[in-house]
Write a structure and sequence with these properties.
single chain, seven-stranded antiparallel beta sheet, five-stranded antiparallel beta sheet, 18 strands, binds flavin-adenine dinucleotide
């Protein structure tokens, strides 16, 4: 029912590009593509001879600066600050568009032979700078690698190419097969299935259907040398470590995901929702924990702090919790009964239908975190999603909001709890600042530094589902500690020339790991 509504109501009220990148709103106000690069260092140039080879194997190769600026634009606030400050983020690269697995392999072989960096690019809806070609070279656009190969109806597994956009994918499997994947990121219309896996994403109904790492059955991946490997492909296996998980969240640094086998569910007709209000965010968190630990797993369990409850539901006096579920009637009713039992003990019953309806209507509008704030040239808005243990979450909420609010220029920090587990949950913070235009980058980094210092103190995960990209790169080593060296070792083994998306996940952007040239 909730899954059906997503397709019925459409993404961002239909205001987006279907089947290709949708630019963020600020792009419409940009004039010209000149100016020095804001987020590139010593970009690697692709020679005329190499371009000829690429044209020979690819569908399309774009080299004009204007095209490269437009085709590398993403949804990261850091890119927005650079671009609206007169510096295009990454103007030096070539865009290579492909539509088959063989073409991906051919491009990788050319890149491998000539040591050209390759950054995979799909929906470019990432909010971390993950798909920016910071060392130039090739931007490998996989958006036309987008066929639905088929569905194994008995096993409820779909075989799909990586570049298919989420809205087209869900609409097809809902309408043609009566199934859903249940993966509903707030960006589902502007992101691809391969991008979901590459960024280790999570959708709004993850408590019922799982996160992307639970949904991938198997994958085909092209490695840095152009070879093709298949990983996964079993309901479960005890044949050594799960190599598929290596690529889920690798953000294009270990290989190009070209095809995915994804698990599906029967499309539910039945759904229910309830809503309660709590005097404090901490009490609301207790209610979420209790619901999960009593064994209920409602598809959506979302708790908004007072500021967000005011903006979203016109209840600035309360911390509003929405509990919504879909599926078999007996199962949903049992989940609702458990949830109601918990909430009656701790909070005040609200008009669940009205709150549910407001959420259904607004959940796929882009730029929601900035709602309710007056825009000015110095306004910056961003979101930070993390996860921590229940025992720490209330303190993390207080300390992150306080740390961000203490940064000069901050308008407000706020949060909602968006994904819950038996052991902990994701808090999704919104940060908004308004400073002098030339101070935006400083405010932005200072606010992120302040928030991340709290997360590292509590050994919380720096990101729950948006990933790392450039945004979180500076904090990765400190956050992962000794485990960071493991990641480094895997990267060096799989990609010894550092071709694949250099400079992301906190990994080096240097060519050949230390030598700038050979
Ligand atoms: C308004 C908005 C709401 C959002 N809400 C959510 C949300 O609810 N949940 C969530 O998880 N995310 C969310 N995001 C973040 C973003 O949509 C996801 O990270 C998404 O999975 C990125 O997919 P994409 O196709 O746009 O990838 P891109 O942005 O093009 O690429 C992202 C990264 O993945 C790599 N990559 C992409 N495709 C491949 C591939 N085939 N093989 C290897 N590497 C690849 C790129 O190199 C890059 O490093 C949101 C973003 C926006 C703008």
């Amino acid at each position: 029912m909730i899954s059906k509504e997503a397709i019925k109501r459409g993404y961002n009220r239909g205001n987006y590009v279907v089947g290709a990148h949708t630019p963020p709103a600020y792009a419409a106000t940009l004039t010209g593509t000149g100016g020095e690069a804001g987020l590139q260092r010593d970009p690697v140039r692709v020679s005329d001879a190499q371009l000829d080879s690429l044209r020979h194997v690819a569908d399309n190769v774009l080299t004009a600066t204007g095209d490269v600026v437009a085709w590398t634009r993403d949804w990261w606030a850091g890119s927005m600050v650079s671009e609206t400050g007169g510096k295009p983020a990454t103007p030096h690269a070539v865009i290579v568009a492909v539509s088959s697995v063989e073409q991906v392999q051919a491009v990788m072989r050319i890149a491998h032979a000539a040591a050209i960096p390759v950054t995979v690019s799909a929906g470019r809806s990432n909010v971390t700078g993950a798909a920016l070609p910071v060392r130039g070279g090739i931007v490998l656009d996989v958006c036309q690698l987008n066929k639905l190969i088929g569905v194994d109806r008995d096993s409820q597994i779909v075989d799909v190419e990586a570049g298919m956009f989420g809205d087209v994918f869900e609409e097809t499997i809902q309408k043609e097969y009566g199934l859903t994947m249940g993966h509903w990121p707030s960006s589902f219309g502007i992101s691809t299935v391969g991008g979901w896996a590459a960024c280790r994403g999570a959708g709004q109904l993850s408590t019922r259907y799982g996160k992307i790492e639970d949904m991938v059955f198997g994958m085909d991946v092209v490695l840095a040398d152009g070879s093709l490997v298949t990983v996964g492909g079993y309901s479960r296996a005890a044949v050594g470590p799960d190599l598929q998980q290596l690529f889920i969240g690798s953000e294009g640094t270990l290989g190009v995901i070209v095809r995915l086998r994804l698990k599906l569910h029967r499309l539910p007709d039945y759904g229910r929702a309830i809503a309660y209000g709590f005097k404090t965010f901490a009490i609301g968190l207790d209610a979420c924990r209790e619901i999960m630990q009593r064994g209920a797993n409602p598809a959506a369990l979302r708790l908004y702090d007072e500021l967000e409850s005011g903006v979203q539901f016109n209840r600035p006096d309360l911390n509003v919790l929405l509990v919504a579920d879909e599926g078999a009637r007996q199962m949903v009713d049992a989940v609702m009964q458990i949830s109601e039992g918990v909430c009656e003990e701790l909070g005040e019953k609200l008009d669940g239908e009205a709150i549910f309806e407001r959420w259904l209507e607004t959940r796929y509008l882009t730029g929601k975190s900035a709602e309710g704030f007056k825009r000015s040239p110095g306004f910056v808005a961003d979101t930070l999603e993390m996860s921590g243990r229940w025992s720490d979450l209330s303190a993390i909420y207080d300390e992150v909001v306080a740390a961000v609010n203490a940064v000069p220029g901050t308008l407000a920090g706020s949060a909602h709890q968006s994904h819950a587990y038996v052991d902990g949950a994701c808090l999704y913070f919104s940060l908004r600042g308004d400073v002098a235009v030339e101070q935006r980058a400083t405010w932005y980094r200072t606010a992120w530094d302040a928030a991340n210092a709290v997360l590292i103190k509590y050994n919380a995960a720096l990101s729950h589902h948006h990933g790392v990209g450039l945004l979180r790169a500076p904090y990765m080593q400190e956050s992962l500690g000794g485990a960071f060296n493991l990641m480094l070792a895997v990267k060096r083994q799989l990609d010894p020339q550092n071709l694949l998306n250099p400079g992301k996940l906190g990994l080096s952007d240097q060519r050949f790991y230390g030598q700038e040239d050979r």
